[in-house]
Amino acid sequence: MSSLAWIIASSLAGGLLSVLAAAALTLTARSSWIPWLVSYAIGALLGAVFLETLPEAMAHGRSLQQVSGMVLLGIVVFFVLEKLVLWRHCHLEHCDAHDPVVVPGTRIRSGILILVGDTIHNFVDGILIAAAFLTNVHLGIVTAMAIIAHEIPQEAGDFLILLHSGLSKAKALLFNLLSSLAMLLGALIGYAALEGVRELVPPLLGFAAASMIYVAVADLIPDLHRTPDIRAGAVQVLLIALGIGSIWAVGELVGAHVH
């Protein structure tokens, strides 16, 4: 398969499949299951950052200082975006950022904010998928896997908020599916822009690492701390380890067939 074919297939899978899986989980599973999905997603994100993305960025001849500087810049950018309520993604049914104010008409506005933030997030994820595949197929598959892993609990949380805002199940699913197409758009734009500008790949990988670190540390992990029970904590640690292990295992398997 060509790089473009991998990019299109992975961005469609990352967007559409994650939304459908999230909808199925939301409609059939209890909301108490979402933290377990979040735990796995944390491991997948951190595994992708430290086992794949950052090593690959430095392998392109960039110094540790340059790569770490881009990661630092990315974290600051995502902090600012979150302050503007454009990057915030909750993974539980109730949270301070998304709980609608009990005023007539404000619940729909809460749902709209969720969709706006999700669309922007999907668009950037598509660009990151393109950047990874233009580096090599191995990194692209691992990056797409990490994105799908964290998109499922994110989309499940967003789906719950859309239902809570007053949308029907059918409309919530439709709007989430439309939002997911932004990932394909971002991937195609990323492919067109990066194909002739390979020098941008290492800094974009650093930016990708920043996004994964920020989502895991600033958004996902605080959700887990809302459950202080020691037994639940032990399960969370095991699932985080499973997420890291899955990234390592896929990296080893894909690397053995690609290189």
TrEMBL record:
GO terms for molecular function: metal ion transmembrane transporter activity. GO terms for cellular component: membrane. Pfam families: Zip. The keyword Transmembrane applies. The keyword Transmembrane applies. It is found in: Membrane. It is a multi-pass membrane protein. The chain crosses the membrane at residues 33-51, 63-81, 127-152, 173-194, 200-221, 233-251. Its main location: membrane. Keywords: Membrane, Transmembrane, Transmembrane helix. PANTHER family: ZINC TRANSPORTER SLC39A7 HISTIDINE-RICH MEMBRANE PROTEIN KE4, ZINC TRANSPORTER ZIP13. This is ZIP family metal transporter. It comes from Pelomicrobium methylotrophicum.
